User: What shape does this take?
Amino acid sequence: MKARECWSVLEGKAQQKVAKAQAAIVQARKMLQGLQASRDRLEFLYEEYRAKSLATDGVSQGMQDAMNQRQFMSQLQSLRERVLQDIAQSEAALARLNQAMALAEAERMKMQTLDENEHTAVAAKMMKREQSRMDELGVMLFNRLSHS
Assistant: This one.
């Protein structure tokens, strides 16, 4: 008697799901790190321009230059807000991926356990069958010796 292969096949499929989930998590983390780096660059750039603006307050700027600088700072601020929204969405997606990974890992563990149980049951059945054969041989040998 041989163990059924269905559980090991299902375990393999579950392992593939786990691997895909892990790869997706790695990608999501890279994306999140990139977004955080963009946020840091935007904040640095904004603070640099703000400091430049404060330094030039005493010096008379042209009206057009002042408006351009304010508009640029406003654009930097709106970009920063957009990046913050993207970071929040990326963190939420990462949380969902982690949850999917946990479910996939639980499914893999379940299939592994079912596969192990199948192998254990087959081994027990084989042992029982072998013991039954040994008992038959013992009875036959006893009967032969008794009749002789």
